[in-house]
Design a protein that fits this description.
The structure holds two protein chains of two kinds. Chain A is α/β, with parallel strands linked by helices. Helices cover 41% and strands 14% of the residues of chain A. Chain A has helices at 26-36, 56-63, 79-93, 113-125, 138-146, 168-177, 192-200, 210-213, 218-238, 260-268, and strands spanning 5-7, 10-12, 16-19, 40-44, 68-72, 97-100, 129-134, 153-154, 184-186, 205-208. In chain A, β7, α5 (138-146) and β8 form a beta-alpha-beta unit. In chain B, β13 and β14 (234-239) form a beta hairpin. Classes of the chains: A alpha/beta, B alpha+beta.
């Protein structure tokens, strides 16, 4: 059976979502998106005078990738700003998919959980398919589900830090307590190994931008993340072994009785 | 680009006619808005190696050209090669390491020790006002030029030479022909340096909005351009004569030419304030907004066909790349016996 990522009734082969900002050039961005294999890409329009469509040239260029666009509300701090921008992006891009961001702290770009829930409720009522960027707090995540979000995007760590999965306990709790909700790790992923780890933990997908865009070779790094996400997903599906307390040889060692190690240790002493 | 090229070609003995869509006294192009930095190493952080190479070529030409221009016109253009300094606040210190790592990797064998780490002592010897920072990087070969002095000097030099100037004359360019609103004029060669004015002719040419503040203060004295590294912004402060400082620049994927936003002005001014608190009482003299002409790979474009050369897409590197591109155009002109069209992506 095909292992598809299902979000809001749409199925995707790729479990890597990427952003389109911070690249050395639009051309490298598009090449990187292709190398990542991503089928969903985010883009921001808050600062680009969307009402006048002054960023249209780049938006058209991004749209030529053929990916599902996921406009975001980066830079918004209140539900009112979010709703205005969301309506504008729906009109410009012809999609009701939205990555919801409501920033609560300017320095680390931490989501504002209260504004997030309020904005998500309003957007769902307006018919948007909302993918909220949230913290790893179980209660906040539940409230977002209560107001109608079908997908959650908890952070691994703050945006752009590259620190990976900072609070694995919380993230594992989310996975265990919300087993049927698509969970996408969004933000903080700095290395392919961290993306792989997120997938091994059972998350459904990973969304990232800076680690690819700011790499010395973004296209190469995009390919590395693609492999890491595929690898982590395959490992999760295959079933990871549990960690053991003692060494366990993978080939039979008939000539070495189980007490041998203790004897050897005794000789050393 | 156009003015510099006209001046150089005229000096080489070519008969030059210059068409300017606006006024040469109040140019509308990004050249007027920019801070005039010639910083190949700093730019290498986010650009590919060919930009660095062209910038290094430009660094070889600027001192001599600036001197020639000053001698010809009797005016000062404030070309200064005192290097630039990069600093980061303690919480963003990894940005300095990232910068060094990126440049070291990109330069490879060409890395001949152009990056100098500064501790607090050596940093404050170069820039006493940067005493809030514990370390920095000094890029000693970098330079800058006061574009607000250079552009009038070039205008004067063109008037002194036999260059025909048509101001307030928007044009369209085709091989060997310039088309104004009322007429067409024939030339041996047309060189199109219109920037975003050539958007209809150059596929993929786009504008990238940049916003700049100019402040004045006598309380803080900087001797050279200072860049503040930050995870989300790339900001610089370039000191000019008369206690002015140019702070820039935002980079927004938009062709919006409306006045600076409150957010951008807060980002720029708070960055300056974080360099030194005495900037709080600086007076804002001017805000500047313009759109940089850029190609989709952000590389300059030099496109040649018989009777027409197009130079465009200098993006955020006008003063960094202009001399190197002028020299390439000069070479193209010398080879005009070739009747084939070609596009040089400069990479």
């Amino acid at each position: 059976m095909a292992d598809k990522l299902n979000l809001y009734g749409k199925a995707f082969d790729s479990r890597l979502l990427v952003g389109t900002a911070l690249y050395p050039s639009p051309a490298i961005m598009r090449e990187s998106v292709a190398a990542s294999g991503a089928e969903i890409i985010t883009l921001s329009l808050r600062r680009q005078s969307p009402a006048q469509q002054q960023g249209k040239m780049l938006w058209d260029y991004i749209q030529e990738s053929g990916c599902q666009l996921l406009p975001n509300t980066a830079g918004c701090k209140t539900p009112k700003e979010v709703v205005a921008l969301a309506e504008m992006s729906r009109e410009i891009f012809g999609t009701d998919w939205l990555k919801l961001e409501v920033i609560g702290d300017d320095y680390n770009l931490q989501p504002d959980p209260f504004g997030l829930i309020e904005a998500a409720r309003e957007l769902v009522q307006r018919g948007f398919k909302v993918l909220p960027y949230c913290t790893d707090d179980l209660v906040v995540c539940r409230r977002l589900l209560d107001v109608g979000c079908e997908v959650l995007m908890p952070w691994g760590s703050p945006i752009g830090t590259g620190r990976g999965l900072m609070n694995k306990y919380n993230l594992q709790t989310l996975r265990e307590r919300l087993p049927d909700v698509p969970l996408i790790i969004d933000a903080g992923i700095g290395a392919p190994s961290q993306a792989c780890e997120a997938m091994e933990l059972g998350f459904d997908a990973v969304l990232l931008n800076t680690a690819i865009a700011r790499a010395q070779n973004p296209v190469l790094m995009a390919g590395a993340f693609r492999l890491a996400v595929e690898s982590g997903r395959a490992a999760r599906n295959a079933g990871l072994m549990l960690k053991r307390q003692t060494a366990s040889p993978s080939t039979p060692t008939l000539d070495m009785p189980f007490w041998q190690q203790a004897v050897s240790e005794g000789e050393k002493a | 680009m156009g003015r510099l090229l006209a001046w150089r070609l005229s000096a080489m003995g070519h008969q030059v006619t210059l068409f300017e869509s606006g006024s040469l006294d109040k140019p509308a192009g990004a050249c007027h808005t920019a801070a005039g930095m010639i910083a190949p190493l700093s730019e290498l952080y986010h650009c590919p190696l060919p930009i660095y190479h062209m910038g290094m070529q430009s660094l070889q030409h600027w001192p001599q050209w600036a001197k020639q221009l000053e001698q010809q016109t009797g005016t000062n253009v404030d070309y200064r090669q005192t290097g630039s300094i990069l600093v980061a606040h303690p919480q963003d210190r990894s940005e300095l390491l990232q910068f060094q790592q990126e440049l070291t990797a990109k330069l490879g064998k060409e890395n001949t020790g152009q990056l100098h780490w500064l501790d607090k002592n050596t940093l404050t010897k170069l820039e006493p006002e940067l005493d809030r920072f514990d370390q920095g990087l000094w890029l000693a070969t970098e330079a800058d030029i006061d574009n607000r002095k250079l552009l009038p000097a070039l205008h004067l030099a063109l008037k002194q030479s036999d260059v025909r100037i048509h101001e307030n004359t928007p044009v369209n360019c085709t091989p060997r022909k310039i088309h104004t609103a009322s007429a067409s004029e024939q030339f041996e060669l047309v060189i199109d340096t219109r920037g975003l004015g050539a958007k209809q002719q150059i596929k993929g040419l786009r504008g990238v909005r940049g916003e700049v503040l100019v402040v004045e203060t006598q309380e803080v004295q900087l001797n050279r351009p200072v860049r503040l590294l930050h995870p989300r912004y790339q900001l610089y402060a370039v000191p000019r004569a008369d206690h002015r400082i140019v702070i820039g620049a935002t980079e927004i994927e938009s062709e919006d030419m409306s006045p600076i936003s409150l957010r951008s002005s807060m980002e720029l001014s708070s960055a300056l304030y974080s360099i030194h608190p005495a900037f709080a009482e600086a007076r804002i003299l001017e805000t500047r907004v313009n759109c940089r002409p850029a190609t989709m790979d952000n590389m300059p474009l030099l496109e040649t066909e018989p009777g027409l050369i197009r130079v465009n897409g200098l993006y955020r590197h006008g003063y960094l790349l202009a001399p190197a591109l002028v020299v390439q155009v000069e070479m193209q002109i010398q080879q005009t016996t070739s009747d084939t069209a070609q596009v040089t992506r400069c990479n």
